[in-house]
C-alpha cells in the first residue's frame, strides 16, 4: 500500500510539474508575441512606404520558385501613424499608383483597438472626383478580404488581438542563421468565427523579435499559407522585412510585397491623414515630397 | 481503479513517449525550407511616362433588330504635381461613332467627337486649394438620386450601365475648397454653364409640339452659376449644407405670349446632405429646395423640393447592397405631379477582385419607367478588361421619341486596353 502511495504521489508531482511548465511556457509565449506586436506597431508609426505587390500562379522545381504566368502588379504609396496611449489605434492613407486602371484610387482609414468603435474609411472615386464614406464596421465580424486582389488578406496584415489567441512555444533552436522560438497561436472561441485559420505558427527571431516565417493552417488543420520575411534591415532602430512572400499551398499562388521605399519615424502632419489628402492633390504631393526626403 | 506502481509507470512512460513524438515533429519545424526565386519580378523605375495613361476601348450594344451603338474610344490622361503646391490633370477622350450607331444614323454618317473629360490646374496654399478648368462637381450622398447633385449635367451620349460616373459632363469651373479641422468649405463659379447633352453636332432635343408643325429647337444657353457648400466631418457622420444660384440642366417648352419656346430654369438652390455610418450600414440623406422651376407647356413657375433617403450595407461576405428612394414634388399653381423614384444596386468582386459583378435597378413613377441592368467586368490582366451588360427596360410610350428612351432589351459588350 505504501509503495502504491509513493507511486501515486510521484504521478501527481510529475503531472503538476508538467502543468506548471506548460502554463509558464504559455505566458512566455504570450510575452514574446506581445513584444513582437509592439515592435510591429512601432514600424507602422509615422511611416511612409512605397510597396510593390505582385501575385501569380507559381511552379517549383529544384527548390526554385517561378511564376508560371505574368504577375499582376500593384504599386502603392502609404502613410500611416499609430495613435492612442498604447499606440493601438491607427490612421493610414494609401494611394494606388499602378496598374493604370486603378491609378489614383485613394483610401483613408481610421481603425481603433476598441472593438466597440467602428473602423472609418473613405474612398476617393477618381471618376467622379468625390470622396465617399464607406461602411465597414469594425471588421471584426466580416470575412477577411483579399488585399488588392493578392493572396494576403486583411487578417494576414492586422496586428494586435493578443487576447483572442492562446500561445504556446513549440520549439526553440536554430533556424537558418538565427535562433528562434516557434510559437503556436490558436484562436480562442471568440476569434474562431472571424478567422480562416485553425492555428498560426510563428518563427520569432530571439535577437530581433521579428517574424522570420509564419505558417497558417486552415480549419481542417492542413497547411494553407507560408509567409517568408526576407531582406530584414534595421531602420531607425527597428527591424523591418523589405520582402514578404506569401505562398498559398492550396491554390498554388503566391504574392510578394516588396517595400521599395521606407521612411520610419517621419513627422506626419495630422492634417495629412484627413479627407483633404484624397482631393487636394497639390497638397498631397507637396507633403509626400517632404516625407520622401527621409526615405532609406 | 486502484493505481499500482506499474500503472503509474505506464502513465509516465506513455506521456514521455507522446512528448518525444511531439518533440520529433517539432524538430521538423526548424528545418530551413528556404527556397529562391528563379527570376526577380521586374521593378520599373518611376519616369515621366508614369504620369500618362492611355485607354483604348471598343463597345457595342445589341438590341432586338440589330445594333444600337458601335463605338471606339481613345482616351489619354496625364496628371502630375509638376511644381511645389501645383498639380495638373488632363483627360482627353475621342470617340468614333460607327455607321451603325444610332447617333451616327441621326447624322446620316459616321463621325468622331472629341471632348475634354478633365483639364484643370490646382494650386494648394495654406489650408486651401484652388482648382480651375474643366471638371465635375458632385454633391450629395444618396447614389442614383439627384436631389442635390444638380451642378454637373449629364452626357446622354454615353451609356449608363451600373455606374452614374460614366454619364456626367464636365464643365469649365473655378473651384476653391478650404479645410479647417472638421469643417470643409467649397465655393464654385461657372462662367458658362452647360446643359445635358443628348446628341452631337446638331440641335439637342428638337420637340415637335403637333404634327406638321416645325420642330422646336431646344438648344438653350445657360450663363453664370455659382454656389458653395459647408461640410462638417463628425465621428461616423457627415453633414453638408449647400446654397447655389443655378440653371436647370434640361430645357423645357414654355409659352411666352402664347408662343412656344425653349427655356431653362434659373433658380436659387438650398440643399442639405448627411451620411451616418453604423457598423456595416451607411445611412444617407439628401434634401434640396429649388425656386422658380419652369413648368413645362405653361408660362408658370413653381418651387420644387427633393428628398432622398438611401441605405448602403456591406454583408459579412462582402456583398455591397445599396438602395434609395427619391421624391420630387412641386408647390405652386399648375405645379406638376410629384415623382417617386426607387433605385437599388448590388455589387461583389470574385476571383481575387478580377471579376466584378454589379446590378442597378430603377423605377420611376412619372413618366412610368423601370429598368434593370446586370454587368460583369473581368480584368484579364493588368491591361485588358472585358465587360458585358444585360439591360431590361420598360418605358412609357411617351418616351419613345425622346433621347432618353431605352429599348426593352439591350446587350452591351466592351473590351478595353489600358496602359
Task: Please describe what this structure looks like.
Chain A is an alpha+beta fold. Chain A has 2 domains: about 1-45 and about 150-250, Lipoprotein localisation LolA/LolB/LppX (outer membrane lipoprotein receptor (LolB), chain A), CATH 2.50.20.10; about 45-150 and about 260-295, no CATH class. In chain A, about 20% of the residues lie in helices and about 45% in strands. Chain A has helices spanning about 1-45, 155, 190, 275-280, 280-290, and strands at about 45-60, 65, 70-85, 90-100, 105-110, 120-125, 130-135, 165-175, 180-185, 200-205, 210-215, 225-235, 240-250, 255-265. In chain A, strands 1, 2, 3, 4, 5, 6, 7, 8, 9, 10, 11, 12, 13 and 14 form a 14-stranded antiparallel sheet that branches. By secondary structure, chain B is mainly beta. Chain B has one domain (about 50-419): Porin (Beta Barrel), CATH 2.40.160.10. Classes of the chains: A alpha+beta (about 300), B mainly beta (about 425). Strand 2 of chain A pairs parallel with strand 1 of chain B, so a sheet runs across the interface.
The percentage of residues in β strands of chain B lies in: over 45%
Q: How many helices of chain A in DSSP terms?
A: 5
- Helix content class of chain B: under 10%
Shape of chain B: globular
What is the N-to-C order of secondary-structure elements of chain A (H for helix, E for strand)? HEEEEEEEHEEHEEEEEHH
CATH architecture assignment of chain B: Beta Barrel
Helix content of chain A: 10-25%
**How much beta of chain A, percentage-wise?**
35-45%
What's the number of structural domains of chain B?
Answer: 1
* Domain module tally of chain A: 2
Write down the Rg of chain B.
29 Å
Largest sheet of chain B, in brief, is: 18 strands, antiparallel, barrel
Amino acid at each position: 500500500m505504501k509503495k502504491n502511495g509513493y507511486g501515486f504521489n510521484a504521478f501527481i508531482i510529475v503531472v503538476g510539474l508538467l502543468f506548471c511548465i506548460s502554463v509558464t511556457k504559455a505566458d512566455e509565449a504570450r510575452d514574446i508575441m506581445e513584444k513582437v506586436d509592439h515592435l510591429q506597431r512601432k514600424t507602422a508609426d509615422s511611416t511612409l512606404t512605397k510597396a510593390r505587390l505582385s501575385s501569380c500562379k507559381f511552379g517549383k522545381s529544384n527548390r526554385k520558385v517561378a511564376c508560371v504566368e505574368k504577375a499582376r502588379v500593384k504599386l502603392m504609396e502609404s502613410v500611416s501613424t499609430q495613435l492612442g496611449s498604447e499606440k493601438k489605434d491607427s490612421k493610414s492613407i494609401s494611394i494606388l499608383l499602378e496598374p493604370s486602371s486603378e491609378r489614383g484610387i485613394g483610401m483613408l482609414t481610421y481603425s481603433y483597438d476598441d472593438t466597440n468603435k467602428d473602423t472609418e474609411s473613405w474612398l476617393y472615386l477618381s471618376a467622379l472626383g468625390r470622396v465617399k464614406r464607406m461602411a465597414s464596421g469594425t471588421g471584426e465580424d466580416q470575412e477577411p478580404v483579399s488585399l488588392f486582389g493578392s493572396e494576403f488578406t486583411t487578417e494576414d496584415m492586422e496586428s494586435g488581438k493578443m487576447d483572442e489567441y492562446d500561445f504556446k512555444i513549440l520549439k526553440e533552436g536554430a533556424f537558418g542563421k538565427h535562433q528562434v522560438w516557434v510559437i503556436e497561436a490558436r484562436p480562442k472561441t471568440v476569434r474562431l468565427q472571424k478567422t480562416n485559420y485553425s492555428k498560426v505558427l510563428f518563427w520569432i527571431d530571439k535577437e530581433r523579435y521579428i517574424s522570420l516565417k509564419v505558417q497558417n493552417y486552415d480549419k481542417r488543420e492542413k497547411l494553407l499559407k507560408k509567409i517568408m520575411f526576407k531582406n530584414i534591415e534595421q531602420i531607425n532602430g527597428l527591424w523591418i522585412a523589405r520582402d514578404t512572400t506569401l505562398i498559398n499551398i492550396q491554390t498554388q499562388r503566391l504574392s510578394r510585397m516588396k517595400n521599395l521605399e521606407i521612411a520610419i519615424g517621419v513627422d506626419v502632419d495630422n492634417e495629412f491623414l484627413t479627407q483633404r489628402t484624397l482631393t487636394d492633390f497639390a497638397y498631397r504631393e507637396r507633403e509626400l515630397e517632404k516625407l520622401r526626403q527621409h526615405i532609406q | 481503479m486502484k493505481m499500482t506502481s506499474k500503472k503509474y509507470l505506464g502513465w509516465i512512460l506513455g506521456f514521455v513517449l507522446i512528448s518525444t513524438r511531439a518533440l520529433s515533429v517539432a524538430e521538423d519545424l526548424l528545418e530551413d525550407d528556404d527556397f529562391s526565386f528563379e527570376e526577380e519580378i521586374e521593378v520599373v523605375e518611376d519616369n515621366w511616362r508614369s504620369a500618362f495613361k492611355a485607354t483604348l476601348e471598343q463597345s457595342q450594344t445589341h438590341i432586338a433588330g440589330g445594333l444600337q451603338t458601335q463605338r471606339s474610344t481613345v482616351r489619354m490622361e496625364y496628371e502630375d504635381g509638376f511644381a511645389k503646391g501645383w498639380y495638373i490633370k488632363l483627360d482627353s477622350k475621342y470617340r468614333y461613332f460607327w455607321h451603325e450607331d444610332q447617333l451616327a444614323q441621326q447624322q446620316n454618317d459616321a463621325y468622331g467627337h472629341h471632348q475634354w473629360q478633365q483639364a484643370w490646374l490646382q494650386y494648394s496654399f495654406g489650408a486651401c486649394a484652388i482648382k480651375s478648368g474643366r471638371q465635375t462637381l458632385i454633391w450629395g450622398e444618396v447614389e442614383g438620386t439627384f436631389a442635390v447633385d444638380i451642378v454637373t449635367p449629364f452626357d446622354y451620349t454615353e451609356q449608363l450601365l451600373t455606374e452614374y460616373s460614366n454619364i456626367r459632363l464636365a464643365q469649365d469651373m473655378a473651384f476653391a475648397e478650404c479645410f479647417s479641422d472638421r469643417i470643409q468649405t467649397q465655393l464654385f463659379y461657372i462662367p458658362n454653364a452647360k446643359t445635358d447633352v443628348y446628341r452631337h453636332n446638331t440641335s439637342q432635343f428638337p420637340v415637335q409640339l403637333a404634327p406638321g408643325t416645325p420642330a422646336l429647337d431646344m438648344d438653350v444657353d445657360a450663363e453664370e452659376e455659382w454656389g458653395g457648400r459647408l461640410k462638417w466631418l463628425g465621428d461616423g457622420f457627415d453633414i453638408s449644407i449647400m446654397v447655389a444660384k443655378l440653371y436647370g440642366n434640361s430645357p423645357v417648352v414654355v409659352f411666352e405670349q402664347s408662343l412656344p419656346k425653349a427655356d431653362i430654369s434659373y433658380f436659387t438652390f438650398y440643399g442639405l446632405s448627411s451620411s451616418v455610418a453604423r457598423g456595416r450600414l451607411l445611412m444617407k440623406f439628401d434634401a434640396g429646395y429649388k425656386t422658380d422651376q419652369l413648368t413645362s407647356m405653361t408660362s408658370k413657375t413653381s418651387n420644387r423640393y427633393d428628398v432622398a433617403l438611401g441605405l448602403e450595407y456591406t454583408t459579412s461576405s462582402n456583398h455591397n447592397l445599396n438602395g434609395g428612394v427619391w421624391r420630387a414634388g412641386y408647390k405652386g399653381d399648375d405645379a406638376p405631379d410629384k415623382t417617386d423614384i426607387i433605385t437599388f444596386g448590388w455589387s461583389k468582386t470574385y476571383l481575387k477582385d478580377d471579376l466584378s459583378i454589379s446590378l442597378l435597378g430603377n423605377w420611376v413613377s412619372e413618366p412610368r419607367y423601370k429598368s434593370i441592368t446586370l454587368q460583369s467586368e473581368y480584368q484579364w490582366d493588368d491591361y485588358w478588361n472585358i465587360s458585358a451588360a444585360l439591360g431590361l427596360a420598360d418605358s412609357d410610350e411617351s418616351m419613345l421619341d425622346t433621347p432618353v428612351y431605352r429599348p426593352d432589351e439591350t446587350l452591351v459588350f466592351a473590351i478595353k486596353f489600358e496602359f
